[in-house]
Amino acid sequence: MANVVSQGAQERGTRTTRAEGALKAIAADQESPERLRRVLEQALVFAGAAFAAVYAPAQDGELLCLMESAGVPRTLYGLRDSYPRAGRSPVAAAHRGGRPVSLGPAELAADAQARRVPSGDFFLTALPVRGDGGCLLAVSERPGGFTADDLRCLELVSDAVAFTAPAAPAEAGDLPPNAFSLAMDSGRVRVGDDLLDLFGLDPVEFDGRVETLLSLTVPEDLPSLMSVVEADHMSIGDRELEFRVLQPTGPPKWLRLRGRLLPGGEGRPARLVGTVVDVSTLRSDVTDVARVQRLAAALATAVTVRDVGKAVVAALRRPLRADRIALAELESERLVVTVLDPPEPEAWPELWRSEWRTEWPDAPVRAMPTLAAALREGRARIWPAGSPLERALAEVGPGGLAVLPLPAGNRMAGACLIGWDTPHDFGTDERALLTACAGLAGQALVRARAFDAEHELVGMLQRQLLPRSLPRLPGAVAVARYLPSTAGLELGGDWYDVIPLPDNHVALVIGDVQGHSAGAATLMGQMRTALRAYAVEGHPPDVVVAHANRLLVDMESDLFATCCYVDVDLEEGAAWCVRAGHLPPVLRHPDGRTEIAEAEGGPPLGVVARADFPMSPLRLPPGILIALATDGLVETPDSDIDEAMDHLAEQLAAAAPTDLGLVADALLGNAPRSDDVALLLMRYDGMDLRPLRESWTVWRVPQAVGHARRFARRTLRSWGVTAEYDAVLLVVSELVTNALVHTDGKVRMDLTLVNNRLRVAIADASPRSPVRPTSIGWEATGGRGILLVEALSATWGTLPVSGGKQVWAELVLGR
């Protein structure tokens, strides 16, 4: 017992130490505009808070206003953006009293300042910030609220807020020379003298209207600037952008605006405060000729098609101030995109997102006839804002679209799409720049294709052998990545798979076939198919892997394969892991802690015919992340595999598991790429609605059908089903009778209820599925059972189960 207590104290001390270290690192980063938000995020990580915020005194001293927040939306807890300092709110009480104030669900329900949320009870704690810096407010949804250790971490966060919170905005007459303060309701702006000099205005003649300043900006930059000065007053936070202002002579001047939108509270307008500085010296005055020369130099060293795409994006997007650029290869009437900027799917049209693949997106040319025509003509085409284009293209560039066909010999190798969100005027110089860049890119594609034609074939073959998309999982999200090696042009044998199984189970599979050759890739496809087939048949994980091992041995191949198979029960949050010479899974817990699963392993597949593959249990609390990878992600010739796995765990701990795609991309970005790489991630969130299940073993006795009916009736009553007994019992009778009459061995009945859908499943030892008769005469004595089941159920079918089968029917019930 003493050891347990000591271990718990050590873990609590470690948590506090980690919090102190994280907060010190944030405080040392003086240049980061997100310091305050990052400090608040530590309350979510180390104190388990669902929401954290800082309230600071307003200039008039009457209100405590929201400065920054992190976590779930504050509206879920009924929290406001300001509170009177003299009021009864927990924020005001903690600020006035200089001591923490904690409220539980009962107090919050009775407090007029807070509203109960429909999602359930929560606990609220407010801590004063030293130096009249306001108040730290934290919310916990965990039973019992914040523990003593959590409160200690919150105190550390409160101390850090005192050093990182931004200073209150200066009064109008005390503005720094390059600062401004804009009232969001009236558009009246107070500015420093240096700021007016940047705009070329006389302080005496300036009328104090923000419209006067906006009229001096370059028209193309006006929409982005308006999005800041007309922002929603509820969008509290930092703002930063660069824009140009017109000069009496010479080119426009580049300025950088950094501001913060602050709430005004009751009866006071929200304000945008910040600074404007000259950044023209940071902008290189590069001519279009120089840009073309730089692009030619970059393309001369581009090896692959992706290298060509990256060089084109680097040469065009910034000079053209484009919002998105895509470079795509033309393969069998489809545009397979190799480079996207920006890379996030949300930045691209809905059609493109619907076609999003595991590695790169692609889009059908037939869905974009305008693009198809441009590719046939082989010359650059430009469409200004408002041009009648098909939706898939119009959403790429609502403010203007340029399409550059990329010639490669006597055919078109692809296209480059450049889009703008705001109306864009295409000048003569821009058109010439686009045409020159298209010609250079096309020539570079010819050289790149000559160099990596076999490498492209490798990637195409690998994509065909791997799943095109991953299934949607109840209570979980999975993503996968595959990258071929860049060290050579041989085929790889890495693979992954996500296999949905009955009863809300899912199998996560990752593997690697020895060597790099066409034989390795072929064997990879065979092993993936075999594992999927054995899993769908209903075998337990160790049997699935053992069958695949015996199959590979019987194939008498000179190659072997490694594999990791994880069967996850999405209802219970548990899993069984089987390893065959492969790397173990890496688990990232909800609190950021990572561990390498202690899963006992067996030999690689295809080595020993009668090998044992033990199963190791895994507990999966909601929020856990499972990472399965091949050795190409971590292993290098000069590194130890254990150290490499520890490094992978550290990378996973530093990642935010909210977006698994970003996590996967970050992990792949550090891969050595001397070998092909497969990566499979799954975040288990827990099922919101768990099915009700009951099972019954049907004994072969004369009263077997009656027993099954009585069991079904008792089960439905215990579940609260009060109607439609007759239909359910008739389906049970027919399915059980068919199993007893036409099969031998054990018979099992499973009942599952989800919402109002009841699933009746009868499993037996015969692999032969029932056949629906095409016609039945009046004199026939059988064959009507399946017709009755079909008539009474919404749907029915069969599936293999461990050498036998399961006949199931689903009925929609009124409860």
TrEMBL record:
<dbReference type="InterPro" id="IPR000700">
    <property type="entry name" value="PAS-assoc_C"/>
</dbReference>
<dbReference type="InterPro" id="IPR013655">
    <property type="entry name" value="PAS_fold_3"/>
</dbReference>
<dbReference type="InterPro" id="IPR001932">
    <property type="entry name" value="PPM-type_phosphatase-like_dom"/>
</dbReference>
<dbReference type="InterPro" id="IPR035965">
    <property type="entry name" value="PAS-like_dom_sf"/>
</dbReference>
<dbReference type="InterPro" id="IPR003018">
    <property type="entry name" value="GAF"/>
</dbReference>
<dbReference type="Pfam" id="PF07228">
    <property type="entry name" value="SpoIIE"/>
</dbReference>
<dbReference type="InterPro" id="IPR003594">
    <property type="entry name" value="HATPase_dom"/>
</dbReference>
<keyword id="KW-0378">Hydrolase</keyword>
<dbReference type="Pfam" id="PF13185">
    <property type="entry name" value="GAF_2"/>
</dbReference>
<feature type="domain" description="PAC">
    <location>
        <begin position="239"/>
        <end position="291"/>
    </location>
</feature>
<dbReference type="InterPro" id="IPR000014">
    <property type="entry name" value="PAS"/>
</dbReference>
<protein>
    <submittedName>
        <fullName>SpoIIE family protein phosphatase</fullName>
    </submittedName>
</protein>
<dbReference type="Pfam" id="PF08447">
    <property type="entry name" value="PAS_3"/>
</dbReference>
<dbReference type="Pfam" id="PF13581">
    <property type="entry name" value="HATPase_c_2"/>
</dbReference>
<dbReference type="InterPro" id="IPR036890">
    <property type="entry name" value="HATPase_C_sf"/>
</dbReference>
<dbReference type="InterPro" id="IPR036457">
    <property type="entry name" value="PPM-type-like_dom_sf"/>
</dbReference>
<dbReference type="InterPro" id="IPR029016">
    <property type="entry name" value="GAF-like_dom_sf"/>
</dbReference>
<dbReference type="InterPro" id="IPR052016">
    <property type="entry name" value="Bact_Sigma-Reg"/>
</dbReference>
